[in-house]
Request: fold
Amino acid sequence: MGKLIVFYKYVTVQYPEQIVKWQKALCQELNLKGRIIIATEGINATVGGEDHEIQAYVTAMEQHELFGQIDYKYAEGSADLFPRLYVVMRDEIVNLGVPAELRSRAYTGQHLTPAEVHELLTNRPKDLVVLDTRNDFEWAIGTFTDAILPDIYRFRELPEYIDQNLDQFKDKQVLMFCTAGVRCEPITAYLNQKQVASKVYQIEGGIQRYIEAYPDGYFRGKNYVFDGRIAVRVNSDVLGKCLLCETAYDDYTNCLNAACNKHYLGCPDCLVKYQNCCSEKCQNLVVTAQTHTRPARLLPKTSPSKS
Ligand SMILES: [Zn+2]
Ligand SMILES: [Zn+2]
Reply:
């Protein structure tokens, strides 16, 4: 078994095209696969490979003038958790879709360590609200106790949600969280700029660092991840429900109808009953050969994109 690393860094990248080329070459040389986003504001990546290859990658990064002092989150993994190597240049390292001045680093929320978060939630102040900044398919299987769960499918829908629900945050201390922390950097800045919340916090290192320290803490269920693992069980609570029969269930599958390919929670009974389809409609299309079916083995690329 090899390793998987998740990391980001906000740093001014003057020549992002050159960094893209360098990252591609570096990862190819080391047989790494994954997803690397480069922007003038920094880098955001998930990369998998053999232990020594990941180590060589981290060493190369540490020697680079821009990419020292990164907080790498490690997990068991391999290059096979990704369909390919994807290195791309974007305007933002996470796609929030608001002008740069509305997500300025100068306004980002205060970072709390996992211990500080745990303490805050244990002695939860009356004016504290906890906001899950992730997408619906992520919080459906795991989240913090009593968190607000916005009904969004993509991160860039969150600013609109905040605009329409400012009352929820008025004069409140707001604790935001996401998987590894990167999404909270711009969205806490966005909320801070609204000047409604009394305080805006984000978890240093996101859910990932919190659950490492408190696996049986205030985060319950599974942590959704954007690689072939799809989700990592944190504790035994099952927050999800089968789409078809609503029984408690939290394993994702994709609809066998290739044209649908819906990413959904389907319990074993319903997978049999509906022949690996998300609905009777898709099942009928598959059974009557009116549609192509997905290849039997689920590849990570069929899971939704983080942005
Ligand atoms: Zn079911
Ligand atoms: Zn379907």
Residues 297-303 have pLDDT under 50 and may be disordered. The longest helix spans residues 16-29. The first strand starts at residue 2 and ends at 10. Residues 255, 257, 260, 262, 277-279, 282 surround zinc ion (ligand 2) (CB under 6 Å).
